[in-house]
Design brief:
This protein is of the alpha+beta class. It contains 3 helices and 5 strands; from the N terminus they run αββββαβα. The N terminus is likely disordered.
């Protein structure tokens, strides 16, 4: 499997009790956490361990989280700088802010 394939095939789960979207690769869990604020989702932390760096894990988590917000008809508050940066580079998500 090529590196590109692994990015698109991440198994991202919604851990509702922990209020985060997460994926585990090679025993390391990366996640994006949120706070549910009525009609908004506040994305406050994107955590990807150093061992998983450079694989597109953080971007995949943010994309998944933004698509979830769109499906739920919620606006996004990008408190995490990684999320804000991702949105600024992907105009198709700027309507969520």
């Amino acid at each position: 499997m090529s590196n590109q394939d692994s990015k698109s095939n991440l198994d991202i789960t919604h851990n509702e009790s922990a209020k985060r979207f997460e994926t585990t690769i090679d025993g390391q869990t990366g996640y994006i956490s949120y706070q549910n604020n009525e009609d908004k989702l506040v994305y406050d932390h994107t955590i990807v361990h150093e061992q998983l760096g450079g694989r597109g894990v953080g971007s995949a988590l943010v994309k998944h989280a933004l698509n979830y917000a769109r499906e739920q008809n919620k606006k996004v508050v990008p408190q995490c700088s990684f999320v804000a940066s991702y949105i600024s580079k992907h105009p198709e998500y700027q309507d969520l802010v």
